[in-house]
What does this fold into?
Amino acid sequence: MKINNNFNQKQERVEVMALFGYAMTPCQPLTFKRQDCEEIEVTELLKSQVRFAGKSAKHIFDVLAGKQEYRLTFDSVDLSWVAEAI
It folds into this structure.
């Protein structure tokens, strides 16, 4: 497995392990994984928001993984997650 956590593209599709329906947070990302790379553990949820556009909603999570900040975005239409380093 590669340990490269540098993002070559602005946004990159990722797989996310999330906890749904926990306490006052309806969704909390726990880990995410880039293709052919090791899993990255989310150490802190910094903020979350929802943006609506027509019939779709984008759920946006700013998270901390170690010392690096990432933005994870979930698209409610195609059920995909993308990540970008911020």
Remarks:
- The mean pLDDT is 87.
